[in-house]
Design goal:
Elements (H helix, E strand, L loop, with lengths): L6 H8 L7 E8 L5 E8 L12 E4 L12 E11 L8 E8 L11 H10 L6 E12 L31 H14 L3 E6 L5 E10 L2 H20 L1 E4 L14 E6 L9 H12 L2 H5 L24 E3 L6 E3 L1 H6 L4 E3 L8 H13 L3
Parallel strand pairs: 1-5, 11-12
Antiparallel strand pairs: 1-2, 3-4, 4-5, 6-8, 6-9, 6-10, 7-8, 10-13, 12-13
The structure holds adenosine-5'-diphosphate (ADP) and manganese (II) ion (3 copies).
């Protein structure tokens, strides 16, 4: 019999008192850019990240270490409230380190943190628009007619009504879970392709952008697990005349947010224009399938920018151009990015190089 989540069976157990102990779920990025987690019991309510222990796991089972030297260390980096267990229980975003103290191959936070510390006087803010697609466990897009296709794109973006919107209950659950957890989620919308959705996280300062986005993804896949639905972060989940999925990365510094900030925005765009290929290299796997110059993208092979232009690499929002300060949107990053890499290279290019 197929497994089905039964919340009514679990509920009385989750309601039991747990004494003076709490559960801490450590979450980390595995060797293939997926998420893993495991739980430890902690003696009391945690308010200070320094009181959490450095833990370890078997990296040979997650494509992060060879079998003969398999211990990978988990160093707590950020704490969120746990919406699954409630109470004082927590989720812990953790960084992975090898036995010799070097960052594990998937630990892009380590370098990004150094970069953010160097740039902190500029108070960089990011806002990421995470797009993703829902699939049935049998591999078909969630809610699509079996063996067929829904009508062409048009009615689905920000849609309302049966046949136009799929899985709104799952999406609502995720939104509320993010708010409860303390993730700085700023909105949601249904996307252009049916069963494709977006949520925005931000503005977040510096390194916290990556922490909040990774944990929001963890909540999404855990909640979808309860619905029996798979989440795809692939940038072009379906071939054909269907939109791809991105992670538009909105960015500003203190200088850009103040009156006269447009000259700082323009200077940053000028610097970005000279490092297009270096950025594309860390803006997601299979992004070439998405950045075709169609479906609201700029072509992967060339850099462009413009006010209100959704076919450009960088868009300056109309309202920002009108008031003369604010932020810019880098539309190139794919839905499967590591946000630590993307926010890190944006800072390196625009603030830490000439
Ligand atoms: P779009 O019109 O591209 O769909 P969204 O409303 O989906 O835009 O997302 C805009 C994002 O920009 C949000 O995540 C928001 O937090 C972020 N944002 C707003 N102001 C700033 C700013 N000054 N600096 C960085 N990010 C910002
Ligand atoms: Mn958006
Ligand atoms: Mn979108
Ligand atoms: Mn956008």
């Amino acid at each position: 019999m197929a497994y089905a989540y039964k919340p009514e069976l679990l509920a009385p157990f989750l309601a039991l008192p747990q004494g003076d102990k709490i559960q801490a779920e450590y979450v980390w990025v595995d060797g293939d850019g997926g998420l893993r987690s495991k739980t430890t019991t902690v003696a009391k309510k945690v308010t200070d990240i320094g009181s959490l222990r450095i833990w370890d796991f078997d990296g040979s089972s997650t494509n992060q270490a060879p079998g003969h030297d398999s211990d990978v260390y988990l160093r707590p980096a950020a704490i969120f409230k746990d919406p699954f267990r409630g109470g004082d229980n927590i989720l812990v975003m953790a960084e992975c380190y090898n036995n010799d103290g070097t960052p594990n191959k998937t630990n892009y936070r380590h370098h990004a943190k150094k970069v953010m510390d160097l740039a902190k006087d500029h108070v960089p803010w990011f806002g990421i628009e995470q797009e993703y697609t829902l699939f049935d466990v049998d591999g078909a897009p969630y809610g699509w007619p079996k063996g067929g296709f829904p009508g062409p794109q048009g009615p689905y973006y920000c849609g309302a009504g049966a046949g136009k919107v799929f899985a709104r209950d799952l999406i609502e659950a995720h939104y509320r879970a993010c708010l409860y957890a303390g993730i700085n989620i700023s909105g949601i919308n249904a996307e252009v392709m049916p069963s494709q959705w977006e949520y925005q996280v931000g503005p977040c300062e510096g390194i916290s952008m990556g922490d909040h986005l990774w944990m929001s993804r963890y909540l999404l896949i855990r909640i979808a697990e309860q619905w029996g639905v798979k989440v795809s972060f692939h940038p072009k989940p379906l071939q054909g005349d269907w939109n791809g999925a991105g992670c538009h990365t909105n960015y500003s510094t203190k200088e850009m947010r103040e009156p006269g900030g447009m000259k700082h925005i323009e200077a940053a765009i000028e610097k970005l224009s000279k490092k297009h290929n270096e950025h594309i290299a860390v803006y997601g796997e299979d992004n070439d399938l998405r950045l075709t110059g169609r479906h609201e993208t700029g072509h992967i092979g060339s850099f462009s920018s413009g006010v209100a232009n959704r076919g450009a690499s960088i868009r300056i929002p109309r309202a920002v151009a009108a008031q003369g300060f604010g932020y810019m949107e880098d539309r190139r990053p794919a839905s499967n990015i590591d946000p630590y890499r993307v926010t890190g290279i944006i800072i390196e290019t625009t603030l830490l190089s000439d």
